[in-house]
């Protein structure tokens, strides 16, 4: 950690690549679950690592580096969404209402769906669809759902990152899970064979799995169970959580690692020239 802090002070010869190798995949994994998009995940994780590198001297506890990186990544994600929004976004919900709904959250143990073995292509398509729909959740719900149900953090850890109470996190999770459940319960043929949407049909439609993600992103603006009259179904919720918690990690390309290292090196080279340290 001392080496990292020295580098942040202007010494660019101490293990930049090693630091990126150690934490790059961790940050990219979270960024992918937040953005649900490969290109956006690459951009967000690069921005996160660069910002972390610049602020290394502010890290007081080296043992907490992953927690620190998570906080930076989530904050960068929220700021990015706010800048992209065509209308102002509110990052605060009705705390009293959230905490009330948080009391309705029950512990749902993920339960795999009993299904026949499918091809890797169908699995990729299914995972892409689930990720695309998670991306349709309102901002704070998506952050809470990604951190807890996809990245595996505890509710107290998530509350600290989002700067809300644990009860509010439970409320965000309650809303997110119910919105996803209400959508998939009536659409996904994997959860119920009577439903119209089937991965195999999409593959027949197009061999490009991104077509499914583009279609779902276009047709649906935001997921919200309220006003639909949907009645919760615990078994459906458990099956959905099983899929979200088992979506495979994405590994960034070597080109991504090289780009991040280059960006950090360029910054410190320019900074050294400005301050006369070159």
Describe this entry's structure for a reader.
The chain is mainly alpha-helical. Helix 2 crosses helix 13 (254-275) and helix 5 packs across helix 9 (166-187). The protein is 65% helix and 0% strand. The protein is globular and about 65 Å long. It has 3 domains: 1-85 and 253-274, Rna Polymerase Sigma Factor, Chain: A (Orthogonal Bundle); 120-197, Orthogonal Bundle (Arc Repressor Mutant, subunit A); 201-235, no CATH class.
What does the secondary structure layout of this molecule look like, with pairings?
Elements: H1 2-8, H2 16-35, H3 38-54, H4 65-84, H5 95-102, H6 120-134, H7 139-150, H8 155-162, H9 166-187, H10 199-205, H11 210-219, H12 234-245, H13 254-275
User: Based on the structure given, which CATH architecture of the largest domain is correct?
Assistant: Orthogonal Bundle
Q: How many structural units, i.e. domains?
A: 3
Extract low-pLDDT stretches.
Answer: 1-14
Amino-to-carboxy terminus distance: 23 Å
Which structural class is indicated by helix and strand composition? mainly alpha
CATH topology name of the largest domain, in short, is Rna Polymerase Sigma Factor, Chain: A
Question: What is the CATH class name of the largest domain?
Answer: Mainly Alpha
């Amino acid at each position: 950690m001392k080496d990292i802090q020295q580098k942040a002070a202007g010494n660019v010869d101490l293990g930049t690549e090693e630091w990126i190798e150690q934490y790059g995949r961790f940050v990219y994994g979270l960024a992918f679950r937040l953005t649900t998009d490969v290109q956006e995940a690459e951009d967000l994780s690069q921005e996160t690592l660069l910002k972390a590198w610049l602020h290394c001297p502010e890290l007081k506890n080296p043992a907490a580096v992953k927690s620190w990186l998570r906080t930076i990544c989530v904050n960068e994600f929220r700021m990015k969404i706010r800048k992209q929004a065509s209308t102002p976004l509110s990052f605060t919900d009705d705390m009293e209402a959230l905490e009330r709904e948080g009391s309705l959250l029950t512990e749902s143990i993920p339960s795999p769906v009993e299904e026949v073995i499918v091809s890797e292509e169908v699995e990729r398509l299914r995972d892409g669809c689930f990720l695309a729909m998670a991306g349709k959740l309102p901002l704070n719900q998506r952050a809470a759902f990604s951190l807890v149900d996809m990245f595996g953090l505890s509710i107290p850890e998530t509350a600290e990152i989002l700067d809300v109470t644990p009860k509010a996190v439970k409320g965000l999770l309650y809303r997110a899970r119910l919105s996803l459940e209400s959508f998939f319960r009536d659409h996904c043929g994997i959860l119920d064979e009577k439903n119209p949407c089937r991965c195999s049909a999409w593959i027949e439609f197009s061999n490009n799995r991104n077509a499914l993600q583009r279609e779902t992103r276009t047709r649906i603006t935001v997921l919200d169970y309220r006003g639909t009259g949907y009645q919760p179904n615990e078994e459906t919720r458990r099956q959905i959580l099983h899929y979200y918690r088992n979506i495979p990690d994405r590994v960034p390309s070597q080109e991504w690692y090289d780009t991040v290292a280059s960006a950090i090196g360029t910054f410190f080279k320019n900074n050294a020239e400005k301050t006369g340290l070159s």
